[in-house]
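Exercise: predict the fold of this chain.
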Amino acid sequence: MITDLLIAPDIVIDACLGKDSNVISRTFSKAHNEGVKTWLYVGSIDRIHSELVMHLMRTKMLPDDKATEEASRLFKTFAAKHLWLSALAEDGEAVADPFPLRYQFTKAVKRLGQHAYILTRNKTFLKDHSIQSISPEDYLKLSPVAPAEIPFVDLSRQQDVIRQEVEKRVFAVLRHCRYVGGPEITELEERLKTEVGVQHAITCSSGTDALLMALLALGIGPGDAVFTVPFTFVATAEVIRLVGATPVFVDIDPVCFVMDPESLQKTIEAVKGERKDVPVPIGAVNLKPKAIITVDLFGCPAPYREITDIAKKHGLFLIEDAAQAFGSRYGEKMAGSLGDVGCVSFFPAKPLGAYGDGGAIFTDSAELAERLRLIRNHGTDSIPYHHRLIGLNGRLDSIQAAVLLAKLEIFGDEKKRRQHIAALYTKRLSRTGCIITPTLPRGVESVWSQYSILSPSKSFRDALRKKLAENHIPTAIYYPRPLHLQPAFADLGYKPGDFPVAESCANRILSLPIHPYVKEDLIEKIAEIAGYVNRQQEGLNYEAVGSYHLP
């Protein structure tokens, strides 16, 4: 199995000059069709260019300047169809080798992994069995490879698009050596606050720490009730427990899977002892309602018009968990700017993701921003080892900021592509008659962190997932068990049936691959499989979906 081909100079030169063009073009066509990446090694540019110039001067009788110009044109045209592999400092060791180019290529191809080969007709390479190499003729004889596993999120394809910018920015960090608190942090925070439309952006080490820091900055702790949803990643409620407060769960709506304002109002009243018909934690009457954490699930903002009114009515802080929603919009405002404080995650799989953990916090409050910056760095201000308050190590490192800055350059285009892919999914899957596709309220624009469908039943969901897996199509379930039924929250006293909408969604939800590089034929294939499963399941009794009126 071959996953990558590193193109040797002899093949590049033959391709540029049109030698044996049929074989070479068929080779690259086969590689493209089978998902094999083709690479050019930066360290071979001078060698290739000089040989092209000499050949053009010798065979075309071109003067030096014309040959140089033509060589550059030919090489640039060829290179545009392939990826660049950087030369690293270790390649400099080739200076001590009698065959420097062979040494460099041997080092370079190993960096591409165990299934990478050098594409060459150079007999020295081909005869040396310590080097994985193959000729175009032999490559064409290989049987077609099995379909590659389809990635749920294709970070590799994205990296190919931004490779040059990422490497340039990361190298700048390696040069200035300010790995913590480098200039990239300041630049990123300026870019982020402009994107979100707030006065302050504070980067941090993860989306979880963003939520934790927000709670600490707002002074939330033991005896406080924080209202949130049970249908979310554990971090949303986990941080509430970490500061000593109590999570109070609120059911979601069955269409957008976000906090239901009517349920929120009733739950607040129940904690205040004003009603008995709503599930609340053990000892809830002893709690002081303090804050709401909404979740912009899968990129869809919660209904902030209603929730903000409720928060003001009861004097509650509003924290927006926009971990999955950076780039989404609610009315005229961007996700992250819809509460007293907004928190996002830059986990690699997010629409804007780093190459490790990262996060950010947004606010228009200068006082709150100052507290957040202190908390981020152990409560330390500008005076070394002077700690004004208790904090944590919540800093984002400079290399992750460099990666995020590179990704911001293509974020707008990627968001449009995500929205296009989501629209295609909805158009095609809606025709199956068996799947409930996601719906956005009026005035809401989603970044589509996930594309999550609802099956008519758990059995249908499981059958569909199995059939998709048989066709090498990955899926995910976000989330298979609501938080109120997790062992970590058992002491709150919730039980099955307390939040029927969240529990029903957990049994029927399924997330499909969505990223800017999803191929449209994949969507067609998924729809065909869904239709097949529907025909196999006809006649089964499906549980009711319920109804919900969009605002």
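Check your answer against the key: The chain has three domains: 4-148, 200-396, 410-537.
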